[in-house]
Design goal:
Distance between the termini: 89 Å
Shape: elongated
CATH architecture of the largest domain: 2-Layer Sandwich
Strand order of the largest sheet: 2-3-7-6-5-8
CATH topology of the largest domain: Threonyl-tRNA Synthetase, Chain A, domain 2
Mean pLDDT: 94
CATH superfamily of the largest domain: Threonyl-trna Synthetase, Chain A, domain 2
CATH class of the largest domain: Alpha Beta
Radius of gyration: 34 Å
Order of helices and strands: EHEEEEEEEHEEHEHEEEEHHEHEEHEEH
Bound molecules: zinc ion
Low-confidence stretches: none
Number of domains: 3
Largest sheet: 6 strands, antiparallel, barrel
Strand content: 25-35%
């Protein structure tokens, strides 16, 4: 079986003969005498595309044999036309070549080993063996983009064994024979079976967008080429919106948000203080009674309702019931009392007023599903 992607990574259409077709749980496992489909290998997800117009679900490699998984069968001996989703494949080539640049530089600059790599349609992550600072990340990104600007040729070849032992290349496995080396002159030499772009300039912008700790080392998220452009477009759209909303210059939006949050925190403190005063004033106006008192206050938050209930319980022998809500959505309640054991009373009141909640003996908190009139009626009879 000839690996066409190995000879020329730019082959997107090819003809091939079906050499076997066997049933499997997902449909059919098909072998060809030649293929341009790169299988799932080395952290990279397989190519997508079609064989004779039929969708290739997956491509896998076992003992150097490549299997194409299709829903429908293809007849052994038939000549078929293979087509690869070129946009998807090219994007993978850009990201994989970028990974070699970044990992080669991380090795030469900081002595870090690449210990993990995942390249899918959605995300690219690279794991390194040790820590990396924010400054180092920035340096790595700049150096990687310089390598792009130099438009260095990327060569993939199988050096003879006597040559191989003299070449200092990076490799995750201890390989001895049939080693395919991908060389980016002055940047990196690494053992790799995947398709690459021909020149570093084809990668476009390399953006290292996230750095997090991972298993004693770090994990980087990377985007390149058009993906990086789309990401920039999305981020710019956000910054423009924030800048208009805050009437701030684009480069000063973060400072403006920080100021705004500080102001908001101050306002919240003021509001809380005023609410407390208001609750105390409301409670002072309430006439004393032997029974229960119900007060509906929709503008009060939980803290203010609690304060109102605490002040209000001094005005009655029964329960002081502070509520906020509406007949449509129900009512949140806080009930306080100086005489009644509210823990005991809660069960019956929640049952009658379709509610839930509980708390301490002298204060409970919860929710009534009943209407205002029903609630007032219930507490007036206690
Ligand atoms: Zn590679």
């Amino acid at each position: 079986m000839i690996k066409l992607y190995d000879e020329n990574s730019y082959t997107s259409e090819f003809s091939a003969r079906v050499t076997s077709c066997e049933e499997c749980s997902e449909g059919y496992r098909i072998q060809l005498d030649r293929t341009a489909f790169f299988p799932t290998a080395g952290g990279q997800e397989c190519d997508t595309g079609t064989l004779d117009g039929k969708e290739v679900l997956r491509v896998e490699i076992e003992n150097d044999t490549i299997y194409h998984i299709l829903k429908t069968p293809l007849a052994a001996g038939d000549e078929v036309l293979g087509k690869i989703d070129w946009q998807v494949r090219f994007r993978k080539m850009q990201h994989h070549s970028a990974e070699h640049i970044v990992s080669g530089l991380a090795h030469s600059l900081f002595g870090l080993e690449n210990v993990g790599f995942h390249l899918s349609d959605k995300e690219v992550t690279i794991d390194y063996s040790g820590p990396m600072s924010a400054e180092e990340l920035l340096l790595l990104e700049r150096k990687a983009n310089e390598a792009v600007h130099k438009n260095i040729k990327i060569i993939a070849e199988y050096p003879p064994e006597d040559m191989l032992c003299k070449i200092p290349y990076r490799s995750k496995l201890d390989l001895t024979e049939n080693v395919r080396l991908v060389t980016i002159d002055g940047i990196d030499i690494c053992a790799c079976c995947a398709p690459h772009v021909k020149h570093t300039g084809e990668i476009g912008l390399i953006k290292l967008k996230d750095l997090m700790r991972h298993r004693g080392g770090v994990r980087l998220k990377m985007i390149c080429g058009m993906d990086a452009l789309f990401d920039y477009e999305e981020k710019l759209e956000n910054v423009v919106r924030i800048s208009v909303l805050l009437s701030a210059k684009q480069e000063e939006t973060a400072d403006s948000v920080e100021r705004l949050l500080k102001e908001l925190a101050e306002q919240k403190q003021k509001t809380a203080a005023l609410s407390k005063q208001l609750a105390a004033a409301k409670a002072a106006q309430i006439a004393e009674t032997d029974g229960c008192i119900c007060v509906f206050e929709n503008d009060f938050d939980t803290d203010s309702l609690r304060l109102l209930a605490n002040e209000g319980k001094k005005k009655c022998r029964g329960m002081f019931v502070a509520l906020s809500g509406s007949d449509d959505v129900g009512y949140s309640y806080i009930i306080a009392s100086a005489t009644v054991n509210l823990r005991d009373a809660a069960k019956e009141m929640n049952s009658v007023l379709h509610g839930r909640g509980g708390g301490r003996e002298d204060m409970i908190q919860g929710f009534f599903g009943a209407k205002r009139a029903e609630i007032e009626e219930y507490f007036s009879t206690l």
